[in-house]
Amino acid sequence: MTIQLENICKSVAGQKVLxxxxxxxxxxxxxxxxxxxxSGKTMLLRLILGLExxxxxxxxxxGDYKYASVNAGVVFQEDRLCEQFSAIExxxxxxxxxxxxxxxxxxxxxxxxxxxxxxxxxxxPLERRLVVMIxxxxxxxxxxxxxxxxxxxxxxxRKKVVSYIRDKAGHKGIVFVQRDDKGxxxxxxxxxxx
Length: 194
Prior knowledge:
Blueprint: E1 2-12, E2 15-25, E3 30-34, H1 41-49, E4 56-62, E5 72-75, H2 87-92, H3 100-107, H4 125-138, E6 143-147, H5 155-169, E7 173-177, E8 188-191
């Protein structure tokens, strides 16, 4: 599956955010989406997901694709967790074929087992980010769109998380949106202008 963006233009409150963006993301591609703050990185992800419509241009799904919109594992800048549910429940709920036991096996790769049954509202911001990352990686999808997924992580954890993401992605396309490229030097760059 390939996602093709053609001549994408988008304005917000009369301010042009994206102008004539052309980009193609294939199944095995791994991109680092870069650009200064306010350059439209998050907006571009929202357009890919169909959460926003471009003012002009198009987002096309090419190849053998059975859905009307992009089927993605997503990490937004906000965590978007069900606060009263545990980490296990938050991960298991996105994949009906995933048992709580399998969700727990994935989570203990990054979190202490005694934290997994607590409501996620009781977790630290970093622990919450790890739950969101794991959830995005195990949801059935064709692409991973990861907005600031590595926020707040030290070098050792970043390396472990990036390795996990690449392993879980298999042949899915991956788009990282990060302020720096530490640990992501293997990614191709796609830059937006400020």
